[in-house]
Amino acid sequence: MREHSARVLSYACHRGATWAEAEDVVAEVFLVCWRRLDDVPASPVPWLLGVARKVLANHWRSRRRWEALQVRIGQEIEPCDDGWGSLVSANDSNPGVSDALSLLSDADREILILFAWDGLSYEEAAEVLGCTKTAIGLRLHRARSRYMKHFAKVRTHSAIEDPKDKNGRRDVP
């Protein structure tokens, strides 16, 4: 099981957790794994990522409740990052990707990231999300379509902002 800890850590980091939070997620995931050792399948990665997904959801929910409590008692605190703010890795050279991702729903982002960054198969993603392989295919198709629409708008918007070519002439199609 130790060989899968880096995969769970990466999963948490790609979803906006800080390094310390991601380490806590890994610890909690493997605590659940230890407690439910009989439930762990022969291929444990999708099962571990499914547990990590639920641990992160609990983390974000707890953070929102804590911050709401702080507001109610009148203390000023910094606004909460919903977990998607640091989603795109630092080496991503195309800012349109993060802009388009930020326009998607949480469910669409999750399904795209499971395939693009976590490299899961349809079966593994279905296990992580707790649905059928057929449902994953449909959700992925719809998420990709919505992403491409948003990405096209983001790219078009950036092209409109700078319509001149390097010689100062307007680019007329």
Percentage of helical residues? 55-70%
Strand content: under 5%
**Computed structural class:** mainly alpha
Q: Separation of termini? A: 57 Å
The number of helices is 7
What is the H/E string?
HHHHHHH
Write up this protein.
Helix 2 (19-35) packs across helix 3 (45-72), helix 3 packs parallel to helix 6 and helix 6 (122-129) packs across helix 7 (133-161). The protein is an all-alpha fold and 173 residues long. 21% of the residues are buried. The protein contains 7 helices and no strands.
Q: Could you write a compact summary of the structure shown?
A:
The chain has 173 residues and is mainly α.
Q: What is the topology?
A:
Elements: H1 5-14, H2 19-35, H3 45-72, H4 95-102, H5 106-116, H6 122-129, H7 133-161
Structure characteristics:
173 residues, mainly alpha, Rna Polymerase Sigma Factor, Chain: A, Arc Repressor Mutant, subunit A, 2 domains, 7 helices
